[in-house]
Amino acid sequence: MKKSAVPDLSRRQFIGSACCAAVGVTGFLSSLASLRLMGAVASPGNVTASAASVASDYKALVCLFLQGGNDANNLIIPSDSSGYAAYAAARSNLALPQTGLLPISPKTSTGRAFSLHPAVPEIQSLFKSGQAAFLANVGTLVYPTTLTQYNSNSVPLPPQLFSHNDQQVQWQSSVPDQPSTTGWGGRLADLVNAFNSNNQISMSISLAGTNFFQVGKTVSQYAVSTNGAIAFAGATGGNNPTRYQAQQDLFAQAQPGLFEAAFGNVSSGSIANSALLNTALAGAPTLATAFPNTTAGNQLKMVARLISTASSLGLKRQIFFVQLGGWDLHAAQLDSTNPDTGAHAALLQQISQAVSAFYSATIELGIPNQVTTFTASDFGRTYTSNGSGSDHGWGNHQLIVGGAVKGGDIYGQMPSLTVNGPDDTGRGRWIPSTSVDEYAATIATWFGVSATDLPTVLPNIGRFASSNLGFLG
Predict the structure, then answer these.
(1) Which residues lie closer than 8 Å to 235 by C-beta, 6 or more apart?
(2) What pLDDT, on the 0 to 100 scale, is given for residue 34?
(3) pLDDT tens sequence across 258-317
(4) Which of 2, 50, 143, 169 is surrounded by the fewest CB atoms within 10 Å?
(5) Where are the alpha helices (DSSP H) in 283-341?
(6) Which residues sit opposite 205 in a β-bridge?
(7) Could you give the strand order of the β-sheet that contains 76-78, starting from the edge strand earlier in sequence?
(8) 0.85 exceeded by the pTM?
(9) Strands 222-223 and 396-401: what pairing?
(10) What are the C-alpha distances in Å from 379 to residues 91, 141, 359, 361?
(11) What is residue 44's DSSP assignment?
(12) Hey, which residues does 206 pair with through a beta bridge?
């Protein structure tokens, strides 16, 4: 099989990528004293010629982050007569035509009817066949919060509720009430990495650069591209063997200073890891599943390829981070002449097609029950329009897909969808009825974390009613 092309990086770009891949966003200098590279670095010669089948006890999580704040008020839409009429009145020019909506029939009946955006027929199909579920109105919380408590400020609230940067960090750390140096995905990796008894690269791999979600204390995130591991190339790189070897010799030399020694170790390890991973990918089976040539499609395609190499790299647990931006739609959210289309519809279509293809790939690999994909986003959006888009909200609906998902249902509690109603802090900013902690705890439990160890991953979980929402088998 032809080896995938890798980006041709300059020496300066490679050094920056190497540091980020090995250390993550916690910072290079702060990690020198206790630096641990991405698993044990092994020679590329140790990789088998073709990837072995994925282990029967293998599990993977794929966090699909919708950066900017997805307007899930136009993903799940009330479709009974009274519900749709109230929706159309509240959303005004953001309302979708009722005729194009995709109906769903959740297993748990609440007396309300819901449909999906016309752009997500693949998600509708997965929902109907039981491989997809939604979690309603989930968001960052310090403690369970009612509207009365919100208005009286009688319980602590997540700071900077409607700030992109703050809410992204709080979502990815699940610790909104204090500064955090790790993400809940990183703490989860630290806890379950023992399942990987002989892993040769990190179990935490990002397809979207460095992120807070995967920052751990002992397991470092490893950033790769949609073409494979980032290789050291260019004038002093792999296309000139003599210079390439000289550069490696410089990195390997004993250094008198802590900084210089750590820099050399990080650089050498990154070179070895990129060669190791690209060799493994070159021997991976060719997937028959067709992925869309989109940002989300290409990232999830690489995740599927990486999963196919798990056994050859000694991995039985993996956590992936995938991200799609563009959801901060304060304007031009939909096409005024055809509301079923526009910027939001295009993003939803991209997610729907990519997630469906990825699930098909897990079937092809024989592991649909061993891989769970879940969405997260900064926050929801206002129910009311600002004229041509929606503004920053709070509670939001999330999607979970996989063979282990108890699909075909909406979990949690849908808000009343009433502006100035019991769940609204103003303009249809819903107070979350489910915390990120409860969402994450359900996922972590499926991944192998015991009830006694959950507080290690989610320090605030004891403040909330449930540590298992039931959407995973």
Answers:
(1) 10, 11, 243
(2) 32
(3) 887 777 677 776 777 888 999 999 999 999 999 999 999 999 999 999 999 999 999 999
(4) 2
(5) 295-308
(6) 222, 320
(7) 76-78, 114-116, 102-104
(8) yes
(9) unpaired
(10) 18, 12, 25, 29
(11) G
(12) 223, 321
| Contact present, 59 and 320 (Cβ < 8 Å) | no
Per residue in 98-130, pLDDT (tens digit) is: 999 999 999 999 999 999 999 999 999 999 999
Number of residues that make up the chain:
473
Q: Rounded CA gap, 413 and 369, in Å?
A: 26
**Among 309, 260, 332, 361, CA closest to 55:** 309
Q: Which two tokens stand for residue 234?
A: 């260019």
- Alpha helices by DSSP H, 94-233: 121-129, 147-152, 164-173, 184-192
Which amino acid belongs to residue 274? S
Q: What's the chain's average pLDDT?
A: 88
What is the helix, strand, coil percentage profile of the chain, to 5? Answer: 35, 15, 50
Q: Return the DSSP state at 339.
A: T
Looking at residue 240, its pLDDT comes to 73
Reading the block at residue 360, the tokens are 């098909």
